Amino acid sequence: MFKGLAAKVYELSGENVYLCYQCGMCSGSCPLVSVMDIPPNQVIRMIQLNMEEVLDSKTIWICASCYNCTIRCPRGLDPAKIINALRNIKMRKGISVVNLRKIPKVEEYPQLALVAASRKLMG
Known about the structure:
Layout: H1 4-13, H2 25-29, H3 40-48, H4 59-62, H5 68-72, H6 79-92, H7 111-122
Helix pairs in contact: 1-6
């Protein structure tokens, strides 16, 4: 049914990324989009195109799982769950990019992002 990255995401999240038609509602409702390198709707598009470099984006670690995107998605997708699946794929490869001790100028980052990053370290 699904191939490549979309299949891995579906296996972990149960979300069909091909339902997304790129309305941008998720990115427009994200409180942290200004500090992301790739907006949530483009993350989903990259999964659709099997662009594995999305796993190297800062966005998957910045997402605070606030579910604003999920509530507002007209297609009933859960972008927060999709991004969490990407985190899991990355961590299963033995790579975890969040190291709170190495973050310069912590006070410049949104508190919500730092709390979410510290939760990921515990999991």
